Amino acid sequence: MYEGSSLQLFMKYAVPQMIGLVFNSVYMIVDGVFIGNVLGCDSMAAAAVAVPLIEILIALSMAIASGAGIIISGQLARGEHERALHVFDTALIIAAAVSAIIAIFGNIFLDGLAKLLGSTPQIHGEATAYIRYVVTFSPFLVFSFLLSGLVRNDGSPRLAMFALAFGSVSNIVLDFVFMVPLHMGIGGAALATAVGPVFSVVIMLPHFLFKRGHLYFAVPKLRLPDVGRILQFGFPSFIMEFTIGIITFVYNIAIVRYGFGEIGLAAYLLIGYLMLIILTLFLGMAEGLQPVFSFFTGACETTRCEDMRRFATRVFLAVGIVCYALIFFFSKHFYAIFNPGDAELIAFASGKSLLYFCGFFLAGFNILMISFWQSTQASAKALAISLGRSVIFLPLLVLILPHIFGSDAVWLCHSLGEALTACAALIFLMRGRVRTVSRS
Asked: N or C, which end of the chain has less CB nearby within 10 Å?
């Protein structure tokens, strides 16, 4: 299952997950295209308010999937199939409990939730309409990512890719149906987004129902020690996935605070779509490599694990540099897809993009190192890097730099935060090498 060179394993595991997550991100972007062209700028700002919530849901599901996957891959490497099933059962119970709580309380406190996420009086009605569908269908979103992670760790990365991609394509079709012929407005866009994961879940269910791998459905049994281990190993992944939601939340608040208003929110929605694509490339590749790193660790194949990390580092840095070059030359054309008649919005968004994305090649390196340390059970390092690029450096920079260099400096803070985080990751790597040399 894990035979072959670093390139072969990268193509087998990292690339399918990357494709699946990119397709999954497409349905959020398609929402923006339809909303911008059919409903206008204010509706785009309302949709932007819901983005952090969607990313939080994805973060929760991927945390459970990664935490369980790290344990399961190691157990399968050691031939402990029964123990892997126990962890699988526990992960399903955790996901069911979490998603039920979100669906219930999200609807009860819908108005306050919209305000907390950055809704303004001008867009509040549309923001709550969008969020209502997201929280109601949240169990399907959670399970779509959970099952895709478990399918991948069970040796079927292409099935996970197909399920996520099919859900995304269905959303594109439903976006058109709900918003154009049925005239359902922003509620139609939200409903299409919410229904997509339903198809993904349905596609993956037969893998577990018909025992096509080592993991399959049985009478679920909750094992408290497994709960703790899943949460321990999955928390860095939660922070890594949650980072997109945190970043969006911080920027939504900062954009209003520093006087950019509704056009700033709408522009950041466009920038956020582009950010989502780039980060999804990195997150997909990193998550796809998690079973490989975990299996090598469980099988004590340290050399192959290090070879894969070095190979992946070169790929991630190259992808980041290519992405920035594309942004430099083509960002205006990308933003014009969403609202071609609003020249002011396109010019504003493209002008801020060069600052915003200048350090994103380092974001890929940071995400890879989080996945590597998490998968090899160096949870403290993974957690430190995850927190560094989300809740430590970025909020501090957003709070300080605009007061020193002016409000436009807020658009540079994300890249500077990634650069500081990359420095911390390099320090961890160098310390690890020094310890290895001293022991030998």
From this structure: C
Residue 220, in any domain of the structure: yes
Name the phi and psi angles at 10, rounded to 5: -60, -45
Angle, helices 185-209/124-136, rounded to nearest 10 degrees: 10
In this structure, is residue 1 part of a structural domain? no
Beta carbons of 17 and 285 less than 8 angstroms apart: yes
77-107 confidence digits (pLDDT tens): 777 778 888 888 888 888 899 889 999 998 8
In a domain, 147, yes or no: yes
Q: Give the number of other CB atoms < 10 A from CB of residue 97.
A: 11
Give me the amino acid identity at 191: L
**How high does pLDDT run on average in the chain?**
84
User: The tokens of 431 are what?
Assistant: 């310390």
Q: With cut-offs at 50, 70 and 90, classify the pLDDT of residue 1.
A: low
Domain residues for 41?
6-434
Judged against a pLDDT cut of 70, whether residue 203 lies above it is answered with yes
Q: Tally the residues of the chain.
A: 440
> Which of 184-193, 327-336, 381-390 shows the lowest per-residue confidence on average (mean pLDDT)?
184-193
In a domain, 99, yes or no: yes
Burial of 399 (0-12, 13-18, 19+ CB in 10 A): middle
Higher pLDDT among residues 365 and 165, named by residue: 365
Residue 164 near residue 27, CB atoms below 8 Å: no
User: Over 50: is that where the pLDDT of 265 sits?
Assistant: yes
Structure tokens at 382: 């993974």
Contact 47, 272 (CB under 8 A): no
- Residues 6 or more apart from 350 whose CB is under 8 A from it? 331, 332, 335
Alpha-carbon torsion 116, 120, 124, 130, what sign?
A: negative
Output the CA–CA distances (angstroms, integers) from residue 433 to 243, 427, 430, 436, in the order listed.
28, 10, 5, 5
For 353, residues 6+ apart whose C-beta sits below 8 A from its C-beta are 271, 274, 327, 331
List C-alpha distances in Å: 46 to 252, 276, 379: 11, 17, 37
% the chain with pLDDT above 90: 15
Angle between helices 261-298 and 302-336 (to 10 degrees): 160
Per the structure, how many domains does the chain have?
A: 1
